[in-house]
Amino acid sequence: MKPDELADRLQAGSAALVAAISPPAPDAIRTRGDRRRRRKAVMSALLALAIGAGGSGGAYVSFDVPGARRAPVTGAAAIPPPARPGIVAVTSKGELVVLDSVTGEATRILVASGVTADGVAVSPGGSTVYFSVRAGCGHEIESVPVTGGRPTAITSGMLPAVSPDGAELAFARQPYRGGPDSGAGPAACRVPGSTGADFTVVVRDLASGREMAYPASPRAASALPAPISHLSWAPNGRKLLVSAGPSRDNKGWDLVEMDPATSRYYLPSGNTAGSGVSVGDIAGPDPADSYYREGVFLPDGQLFVNQVCCSGEPVRDTSSLLWEIDSAGRLYRQVAIGFTNRDHSSLDADPAGYWLLYLSGQDLFVSQDGTAPFILTPGLIAAAWL
Amino acid sequence: MRDPGNFDAFYSGSVRRVIGQLYALTGSRAEAEDCVQEAYARAWQRWDKVSDYGDPEAWVRTVAYRISISTWRKAANMRAAHRRHGVPDELRGMSPDYVAIIAALRKISARQRQAIVLHHLVGLSVEEIASEIGAPTGTVKARLARGRQALAPHLTETDRAGTSLVPGPVTGISGREVSCEA
Asked: Contact A34/B120, CB-based, under 8 Å?
């Protein structure tokens, strides 16, 4: 048989076969592919746990303290655990995206570029996402519907946090200080000689646009700069948890609880009336030198914090713990032991307090009810539950 | 970002063709369909990357073929296929002439069969085949020539016999029996 004849007979026969084939619908194939992705995500998480348990950087472990505050619910009265909510995140490319919280895959791009680090918040109903973008030598806060649409500019500032009733927006207004989201020309934007006085927490009434500013206390204002790194509202909307700390070493990191109705400053100044109050004593092997790198309120009023040891110069962290604590600093349970060579940021809990998330470097970790967290996806600079 | 519409269009436009190609490569229609579906599922799993490739269909075909030559998977698939479908209806929709060619292809080596199918059925050039299977062009040319040579007596014999072109129990790539006993 000549080659051409062979080709003709093969192609003719195959064409007849192809016409008789009834393949499955595309969505059935996609479902099968999605299952494979989920399996792969689970396997990756298990692998990360295995590596973490044996690696030198630190292990992810979890344990509960006796006398847990959440009573187990079993039997006929058992309530199914809350479903894992969606996640809104900022990628390392500056995209604001909605993630599938099971696969870690981006399902929707809300903003294509320019969104800055650790500055994403969601309104109580989950309908609006607040974020910050670079604007000249500063930042601007914008909002966008979670379903997508045109972003709306709100005001200058960064690190937005929406109050539980959705009526107020807390944020930081502070000099541009460079960093991973700095873009071009950080040196040109840097404010020489800035002090604590240049750093302010602002609470804005979203309906009227009226703003109340809370600077550092006079004593802290004359000291070295203490940039604000995260803000979190208490579940009753009456307190604001401010994470702040120096940019050059790890001395003086502080987690401050302030009452916007009565406080005048966001950083404390000893016994001055009206100042913010540092969150309780730190427990641990070396309480004197440990410090809170970041903290957020949980729905039951407890705190989810990243506690790091040890402060001082030269910087040499020996532990980085993800803990749930009460306002006096007493440990409720340990969620994870983080890597000492990474920042742990974007701490967040879902409205039920059942699902926790945080970034370890640029890896997004998720914990179900405080149990050992698993890595969901890499390449993020901010994240929050929807 | 994976675009379902884009994937669905690709899938709908190519799946039958790829199954036809895999059938010629494997000699088993049920296996071809299983392997191709699995390959498309893997394509969707990483569609953000695969869709950027110059020829996603070649990617799917290569993956499906690799899946088909996994011995473990072969055994598992045959058991699963048998459970799902009973004895497969291998010959539905095929002309007797094509059945004879497939029967002849099963009698030559897997590498020669791969070269012949990719060249004469898929329509790839020698260079394209070399790129797809990762072999030198000289090797591909040799496999094509020797494959045609090995194929010739089987086709001639079948044609000359003039009797039923439906093959009896035959062997697949790995030499095991495939399900044509119906």
From this structure: no
Residues 6 or more apart in contact with residue A150 via CB below 8 angstroms: A144
Domain residue ranges in chain A: 87-385
- Cβ–Cβ gap B45/A33 under 8 Å: yes
Polymer length of chain A: 386
* Distance to chain A for B5, nearest Cα, Å: 9
Q: Which residue of B has its CA nearest to A20?
A: B93
In this structure, whether the domain defined by B94-165 belongs to CATH 1.10.10.10 is answered with yes
Q: What is the CATH number of domain A87-385?
A: 2.120.10.30
Of B98, B120, B156, the CB nearest to A16: B98
> Phi/psi of residue B41, each to 5°?
-60, -40
**Cis ω on the peptide bond leading into residue A314 (within 30° of 0)?**
yes
Of A3, A7, A26, the CB nearest to B11: A26
pLDDT digits (tens), chain A, 386 positions: 677 888 888 888 888 888 878 888 888 888 888 887 787 777 777 776 665 554 333 334 444 343 334 433 344 344 567 788 999 999 999 999 999 998 899 999 999 988 987 789 999 988 999 999 988 778 899 999 999 899 999 999 999 999 999 999 999 988 765 544 444 445 556 555 566 667 889 999 999 999 999 887 766 656 666 678 899 999 999 889 988 876 555 555 678 888 888 887 777 654 444 445 566 555 444 555 677 888 999 988 889 998 887 655 565 666 788 888 887 777 778 888 888 778 899 999 998 888 999 999 999 999 888 777 888 999 999 999 99
Is B120 in Cβ contact with A6 (below 8 Å)? yes
What span, in angstroms and rounded, lies between the C-alpha atoms of A65 and A349?
A: 19
Write down the pTM of the prediction: 0.54
Domain ranges of chain B: 1-91, 94-165
The SS3 assignment for A359 reads strand
- Set of chain A residues whose Cβ sits within 8 Å of the Cβ of B47: 33
